[in-house]
Design goal:
This protein has 358 residues and is an alpha/beta fold. It folds into 2 domains: 131 residues, Periplasmic binding protein-like II (D-Maltodextrin-Binding Protein, domain 2); 197 residues, 3-Layer(aba) Sandwich (D-Maltodextrin-Binding Protein, domain 2). 49% of the residues lie in helices and 16% in strands. The protein has 17 helices and 12 strands. The strands form 3 sheets. A 5-stranded mixed beta sheet has the order 2-1-3-11-4. Strands 8-7-9-6-10 form a 5-stranded mixed beta sheet, with helices on both faces. α2 crosses α7. The termini are far apart.
Length: 358
């Protein structure tokens, strides 16, 4: 079963390429690509049937339509749980979920007005804002942590060894302008080293990196859950560090992004939507086994893989002060890398639509 899921990832991948450490293609090429930095999972036919049944119940309960884009990712477990358990229908909301296999396609749909909200890595929103989409606003959280720095068996076993290999041709893979890049570069920056101290490969997709680690083409790479857990199992890999170590202690990965235009007319709906997600997250944490029972058929992943992955990347429906601080800290690393000149975090964040945390 694990092999079948890995094969699904591979069928959605593109061949990786080795590049230098310049950032000439920068933000604009990032937004043009279809690279998948998400912690993708294979949504099954059973999942489609279950979610369609939930949508019919929502349509009977309300005419209020909310179009939400998301990735097939661990960071939306509470969103899928809310849908599966009929929580949106009970709240009088009809939520159409549209799945994208990469964050660039997701945000393009939001900018084009095809979505009202999306769950996506916060780095994607920052990049689009910096490119001129000034209407974008991060209004809430989605996934917590789950972005990993992973080593193959026989290379290094901890951060100290990773830093000790600086200047010794250790091969490191990551993605450009992504939360995955922040984990790798952030660990380097915290310890006084940089890309020039390693043999860097910049991949167009996360899955290419996982394959490279498995076949020994790279020694260390950055991955997101739950794919990270599958690669660790396949390669006998080792977790070196994660997003909480770099921009934590409560490090957001995916967040909820909307637009000022939508929010000015639909602020109550946005707040109501996030209130449902908050309740779904509470139920996730209060009875994890029951949540797994509902989520495993949706994700189609082996239960033992999903159990580990969803503990390492768990729901984070509301951004608190620690999460905001983490995003600001992450943007500082992006400035060091040359993507941005100024810290634009506070320009993009607008958390006044979050429900009161009661």
């Amino acid at each position: 079963m694990k092999r079948d899921l890995l094969n699904w990832f591979r069928s959605h991948d593109v061949v990786f390429s080795k590049t230098d450490d310049s950032h000439d293609h920068g933000r604009r090429d990032f937004l043009r690509t279809g690279c998948s930095c998400c912690s993708a999972l294979a949504m099954t036919p059973v999942a489609a049937t279950m979610l369609a049944a939930a949508s019919r119940a929502e349509a009977a309960a309300s005419s209020k339509l909310l179009k939400v884009g998301h990735l097939p990712a661990g960071c939306v477990s509470h969103l899928l749980l809310a849908k599966k358990r009929g929580m949106f229908a009970k709240a009088g909301l009809k939520v159409d979920l549209i799945q994208f296999n990469g964050p660039a396609d997701n945000i393009r749909a939001l900018i084009a007005g095809e979505l009202h909200m999306m769950h996506n890595p916060w780095t994607t929103t920052m990049a689009a804002y910096a490119e001129g989409s000034k209407d974008l606003r991060i209004i809430g959280g989605s996934g917590l942590a789950g972005i990993e720095l992973v080593a193959r068996k026989g290379s290094v076993t901890n951060v100290k060894e990773f830093i000790g290999k600086a200047g010794k041709k250790l091969r490191v893979g990551t993605l450009r302008l992504d939360t995955l890049e922040l984990v790798g570069y952030g660990v380097m920056s915290q310890n006084g080293v940089s890309y020039k101290d390693y043999e860097m490969t910049f991949f167009p997709s996360m899955v290419g990196m996982g394959e490279a680690l498995i076949n020994g083409s790279v020694d260390v790479c950055t991955l997101a859950q739950p794919y990270a857990e599958m690669v660790v199992k396949e390669a006998g890999g080792i977790y070196l560090a994660n997003s909480n170590d770099v921009w934590g202690p409560e490090a957001p990965d995916c967040v909820i992004t909307s637009t000022d235009g939508f929010l000015k007319k639909n602020s109550a709906m946005a707040t109501q939507y996030m209130a449902v997600l908050r309740e779904a997250a509470k139920s996730f944490y209060s009875d994890f086994d029951a949540a797994l029972d509902d989520l495993q058929p949706l994700y189609g992943a082996p239960r033992e893989i999903l159990a580990i992955a969803l503990k390492r990347q768990s729901p984070d429906p509301l951004l608190n002060a620690a999460g905001v601080s983490g995003i600001r800290k992450g943007v500082k690393y992006l400035i060091e890398l040359g993507y941005f000149k100024n810290n634009i975090a506070d320009d993009v964040l607008n958390l006044r639509y979050q429900p009161a945390d009661v």
